[in-house]
Design a protein that fits this description.
Blueprint lengths: L1 E5 L6 E5 L6 E3 L6 E3 L9 E3 L42 E7 L4 E2 L2 E2 L1 H12 L4 E13 L4 E13 L1
Antiparallel strand pairs: 1-2, 1-5, 3-4, 6-10, 7-8, 9-10
Amino acid sequence: MDIIFNCPDCHQELVVDASGAGSEIGCPSCETSLTIPEADAANVKIHPPSQTTAREEKQFKVPDRQGPSEPLITKSKPPLESQKDGDKILRIKTIRHGDCREVGHDAFDERVTEILNQIGETNIVSVNTINYSYVDLASKQQLNDFGVVIIYKG
């Protein structure tokens, strides 16, 4: 059973096992030295342990495997359909940030992730960032944007 009482200085509520009654502890909040009161209905609440807080000793067993363990990292997806024929050559895919913007949503990260997953990790040679400028036809202003150039075997 637990004894629930308050610190006389800072009024912090403390919970102590009933076996600790009469011993001296320091308040974790204000560090005042105080004595744990005896279990008494007048000044201490006695809290019976509930089913959820009861301590239960569990014995865990480590699984024993006879063969190789399963990999934690999955293999990359098969290459794009264009890569199935013949020898693989170097290819380039450019993704511009401006092409991935929709009203109220920026889908650039999702689009780059989708393309990288389609290509497959083993086929990627490099991923490079680019900065570029263009003239917006509506406002006739020069704007700066960014993108990604992916070089892969395919």
